[in-house]
Amino acid sequence: MALHPEVSEKSIIQGGIELEKLGKSPNPGSIRAHLGYRGGLMRIKSVWDSFTQKRNQELLPERSTESSFQISKNSITTFRVNCLQISLYQD
Q1: d(CA 22, CA 37)
Q2: How far apart are CA 76 and CA 82, in angstroms?
Q3: In the chain, where are the structural domains located?
Q4: Gap between the Cα atoms of 81 and 23, Å rounded
Q5: Do 16 and 26 meet the contact criterion of CB atoms below 8 Å apart?
Q6: Number of C-beta neighbours around residue 34 at 10 A
Q7: Exposed, middle or buried: residue 28 (CB in 10 Å: 0-12, 13-18, 19+)?
Q8: Cα–Cα distance measured from residue 36 to residue 6, given in angstroms and rounded to the nearest whole number
Q9: pLDDT by residue for the chain (91 residues), tens digit each?
């Protein structure tokens, strides 16, 4: 028969977020202390790392296979004209 975790994933994540709101850096030890010294450090680390990884992925834009810098012909023409104007002023 499997043992149920002493502390739920929700409690671990909530504890970590509460520490962040207090301006503290959540780590397995600080989260465990915040939870009243309940739960295993390895499980807390696993749950918190998984949560922060998912949270960080949501904040990052998805990468596309195409270049993020697409230059139009109009932009290139404008750039060339500006370069010509600069070179004319320098002479």
Answers
A1: 18
A2: 10
A3: 1-60
A4: 52
A5: yes
A6: 20
A7: buried
A8: 11
A9: 678 889 999 999 999 999 999 999 999 999 999 999 999 999 999 999 999 999 988 777 666 555 555 666 667 777 776 766 676 666 5
Angstrom distance (rounded) from CA 57 to CA 51: 10
Looking up tokens 């060339």, which residue turns up?
80
What token pair was written down for 23? 């301006």
pLDDT of 65 reads 53
Q: Which two tokens stand for residue 56?
A: 């960080």
Half-sphere exposure (CA, 13 Å, Cβ side) for 57?
6
Name the residue with tokens 């010509």: 84
